[in-house]
Amino acid sequence: MSARYRSLSRQLRETVRGLRGDGRGWLLVTVAIGWAFTLGMRFILPTLLPQIESNLHISDSLAVEPSPPSGSVTP
Fold it and tell me: Are residues 18 and 27 in contact, defined by beta-carbon separation less than 8 angstroms?
């Protein structure tokens, strides 16, 4: 089992060494963090949105332009 573990460890080190070469590791880490943040927000935002709306007293109707009063002429 330890020989298998050493082989796996060696493969992991070689893969990481290849990814970190020439500054590619920082780019990979940055993209990975951004991707994780984006996916996390897809799960968190729908659960938090009702509480945000109730605390800030906003609704979907605020984004709609009010209709003119009945009987008025619009240009």
Answer: no
Q: Convert the pLDDT of each residue in 13-48 to its tens digit.
A: 887 777 777 777 888 888 999 999 999 999 898 888
Residues 19 and 25 sit within 8 Å (Cβ to Cβ): yes
DSSP 8-state symbol, 66: P
* CA–CA dist 73, 75 (Å, integer): 7
Rounded to an integer, what is the distance from CA 5 to the centroid of its chain? Answer: 35
pLDDT at residue 74 greater than cutoff 90: no
Alpha carbon distance 8, 14 (integer Å): 10
Cβ-contact 53, 59 below 8 angstroms: yes
* Ranges of H-type helices in the chain: 2-20, 24-56
CB 74 within 8 A of CB 67: no
